[in-house]
Design goal:
This protein has 292 residues and is α+β, with helices and mostly antiparallel strands. The chain has one domain (7-290): 4-Layer Sandwich (Metallo-beta-lactamase, Chain A). It has nine helices and 18 strands. The protein has a seven-stranded mixed β-sheet. The protein is globular, with a radius of gyration of 18 Å.
């Protein structure tokens, strides 16, 4: 695949069709993406540019179940000021990518945000030249975690720049966004038949992984718990993670099921490997064993 290929992957999972679309590649600081891991180690996996930025992806997964068209994550969107567009080198490609995949915005009836950082929910809404903001997916019911909204509204020094209210507040005010909580997810994690969510704290306190199950097969969009295939090592947490110890615990919990059950893992920020099956190498460390 070339860096600007709009449709990054397609596969089937039981009776479901999975398509990975992109909001385009973007770049973040390599040190921030790998936290305390020394550059001498992480640069063996991915190269940094002259500004120490590494190439990342903004992967949106569309699940066609036969009854629903489910969209997981919506990229950076079109609300970033010009300065940040230059810093992140983002391309605002999701509408074009969906069109290239043959997916109309009005056919999407469910949108799931794993969390509400701007690079995961930016195209929830569209900014127009007159300054107005409208839902990008007019017929969709949106789902996010209530704790994410509450945390974003606090605008704490540590991560306030990550939360941009035009990506979600208009949807909450209109009633188009449903807010989930931990207790409700534990008792009823299913969003629609075959699609459910599970909380994996660490990157944020309420980050949700999205499980997809059909025909005895299982995939999981694990979001920023494991942002790329270069982050499979248990301890390779990001500097962006609010609680890296929780991230480590969450990865262990995830691998206990994903590896022996041969789940298809969908990576949120891996532009070149958007999906893979993982296993253990001779040192018993998780690695990619196959890409679909």
């Amino acid at each position: 695949m070339h860096d600007l290929d709009l449709v990054r992957a397609r596969t089937t999972l039981g009776d479901f069709e999975l398509t990975v679309c992109t909001d385009g590649p973007f770049k973040l600081d390599g040190g921030a993406m790998f936290g305390v891991v020394p550059k001498t180690l992480w640069e063996k996996r991915t190269l940094a540019d002259d500004e120490n930025r590494i190439l990342l992806g903004l992967n949106t997964v569309i699940v066609r179940t036969g009854k629903h068209t489910v969209l997981i994550e919506t990229g950076v969107g079109n609300k970033q000021p010009a300065k940040l567009r230059r810093i992140f080198d983002n391309h605002e490609l999701l509408p074009r990518s969906l069109a290239a995949a043959g997916i109309a915005v009005d056919e999407v009836d469910i949108v799931i945000n794993s969390h509400l950082h701007f690079d995961h929910c930016g195209w929830n809404t569209t900014l127009h030249p007159d300054g107005s903001v409208t839902p990008t997916f007019p017929n969709a019911r949106y789902f996010a975690h209530r704790g994410e909204v509450e945390h974003g509204h606090l605008q704490l020094e540590r991560d306030r720049s990550s939360y941009q209210s035009p990506n979600y507040d208009p949807l909450i005010e209109s009633g188009q966004m449903t807010l989930l909580d931990d207790e409700g997810i534990r008792s009823n994690p299913e969003i629609c038949p075959g699609v459910s969510v599970e909380v994996f704290p660490g990157h944020t306190a309420h980050l949700m992984g999205v499980h997809i199950e059909s025909g005895g097969e299982h995939a999981c969009y694990i979001s920023d718990l494991i942002p790329t295939a270069d982050h499979l090592d248990i301890t390779w947490a990001m500097g962006y993670d609010l609680d890296p110890l929780e991230t480590i615990a969450g990865r262990k919990r995830f691998y206990q099921r994903a590896i022996p059950e041969k789940w298809l893992v969908l990576f949120t920020h891996d532009h070149r490997t958007p999906m893979a099956r993982i296993g253990l190498n001779e040192k018993q460390k998780p690695v990619v064993i196959a890409t679909d």
